[in-house]
Amino acid sequence: MLPQIVDLPLRHCYSDVLRYLGYRPDKTELNSTVRDLLEQCQQSFQTIAKPRGIYRSGKLKEFALENCWGSRDLERLLGTATRATLLAATLGPEVDAQIDCLFASGDYAQAVVWDALGSDAAEQAMQSLYELVNQEVYRQGYVLTARFSPGYGDLALQQQPRLHQLVSGAAIGIAVTPKHLLLPRKSVTAIAGWLTTDATKPDSSSNLACATCALRSCQYRCRGANEEVSDETR
User: Which of the following CATH numbers is that of domain 4-225: 3.40.50.300, 3.40.109.40, 3.40.1390.30, 3.50.50.60?
Assistant: First the structure.
């Protein structure tokens, strides 16, 4: 299957934005000044960010995934899957440029908020892309596994260029640095397997980033990786 490019909605999960800002429920005060700054930044952010995604589906052997790129965690995730989808999403270079501009001008408060909004919006863009693909594969009698990215668990970050090339990330403006990081910075890539299912509804859970990370004390760790939480995406 050839790569498919799609425009994606701009979404935010407010509790995740706060998590990226270091907010901890019951321990951090969220006063009116911070709330006003968040609202102000979010309004201007919506005029800059342009989420786009690209995905490509095929048999595991088309992506040389038979050995799961040397990752036991990815092997466990894919299980009996014989097909997979590679995904990439980005907010575009304008978000990075605005964050850099704010830092350069010394407006650190807005810069940090923009950075948090960007991290969350990139993750939400990937989630939207994942949900779109999940609906497509479900109509074919399959359901996607959770998604997995280079740097998760034991899947080496050095696999980023390989994934980027296979999914044609350059088609939506994504590049990979010599240190295997994505540019624009607010970009995400991922792999998800296809499993057969008799379920009547696709599973919307998708992200194993925190669940596979060994750094349990990280202040940015998603609460859902440790406990069941109810979170509303807005």
Answer: 3.40.109.40
